[in-house]
Amino acid sequence: AFLSNFLLICCFSLGIILKLCDENDQYARNSNESNISLCNRFIADYFNSYRASLIVVLLTFGTLIPAIVFMVIQAIRKVREPIVYMISTGYPPNLELPEESSYHLFMSHVWNTGQAQTHAIVRKLQ
User: Do 21 and 47 contact (CB within 8 A), yes or no?
Assistant: First the structure.
């Protein structure tokens, strides 16, 4: 998320540079300072509309490539995720709560020491 937001801010900034570095700059034609455009005045001599648009395209691919890689990683994790199947039916268990029940409780215990206490709690709850 941080990388995407950073690249998005860079793209918006470069969009402003694209607007200022437009080669058909009205400001340079209408002002008395004919050699100085808005791009040269506020940004730098390095940027022009071609370089700014090239950087925007590269940043766009810089945003898309990590997003695609993360989606592929998530898809692979989902495919490899283990699934529990019932031995008797071969299908996943039905974990829906019946309509006549209002709650469901699973009690776990350590086999050697907690079996008696767990059974006592279950009997009291029933």
Answer: yes
